[in-house]
Amino acid sequence: MKIYHYSPEEMAEIQTCLDTTKNTTLQRKYQAIYLSMQGHKNQAIADMLHLSLSTIGGYIRIYKSNEIESLDQNKKKKKKKIKKKEQRKKKIKVKWN
What we know:
Layout: H1 8-20, H2 24-37, H3 42-49, H4 53-66, H5 85-96
Helix pairs in contact: 1-2, 2-3, 2-4, 3-4
């Protein structure tokens, strides 16, 4: 098993996010990451937060690969809406053909 070492800056960033967010889903994600940073095992974190082991593992994997921004699903890029009527017709024609 690979041990991941967190910097004090990473821990402070998670703590700040945990303290400032009002979104309960994000709070749970931040809690899972923070508990992991403190050295708790994934199974213990899952038991504390009443989540599955795979969910905790997923949060940690996402954080390790993409940093904190990746945990917030609301920050995903939105698709551009097609505004012109002609473009919508072309899009529909492509779908039906």
